[in-house]
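Raw record, unedited: Aminoglycoside phosphotransferase domain-containing protein
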Amino acid sequence: MPDLPDLTPAELDAFTRLYGLQGPLERLPSVGIVNRVYAGTLRGARVVLRVPMPGDHDDTLTESAAVPAAFQAGIRTPELLIFDDERRVVDAPVTVYAFAEGRSLEGYGWAPGDRRLTRAWREAGRELAALHAGVTAAPDPHGRLEVIAPVNTGRTLQRVTQGGHLARQEAEWATCTVARLLQENPPPTTPAFLHNDLHAGNLMVTEGGEVTALIDWGDAGWGDPVLDLCYAGPLAAPDLLRGYEDVTGLDGGARLRLLAYLLNDATRRLTTPPNPDAPQLWYTHPGTALTQLLRVAPQFPQWAAELGR
């Protein structure tokens, strides 16, 4: 992914003076499509300055409500030190975070079965359990933490059939199965506070696989706790679930909702345009998520009975 454009020297100097940062500010690689990220020092501690592209400010506004709630609950996430929406330097809200040690799990390239990868996902599952139990309310005067919408099986059906990615009969089987599983196994009536985008790029870990931080809370909100086990792809889901259940249990229908969410996601990803030059990641090729779902299915005996109905 190419880096986003640099801030100008004048803009960097203005931020340094405005927030009392000690420079020079060091540009860090872009890991998304929104924020320019710089490392610096504030009062002797390493920090990160994050400046979104103009117009791409929604995630930053959501994080201003989500991160303090997660941090105060003891979740391993960098503290939000400064949130500035006065837009005195650029037309975007700006944040300064404590520095997260380690690097993104995605950057290590560990293969499935690697003990470090297993450790990372299992620890992440424990953090999610602590998050869901620890944040029952969050100050949100501007309504930035939205209720996460349920999956739209009608949209999935339309996408895969209109593009010829699946025969209609198979597409209807997949989407009807998802709809049935969710109808028969509804989520808890009280929604959980979700990170809502926990994938390998948003998980900071050490070289040994120890989780140091969950980052990028721009999609956080309220919803079914099982959703938080899905965004890392099918191969990660079993270890996330095991870690979660190291801390606390989920409701009786959780495993079947996990199947429903993963099946819906794998089906809709069949519409991903083929690109032989794309990175070898689970979400960059159209059939990978579906293949991974088949690989993990034997770990869930309950799934076989439901898929055979």
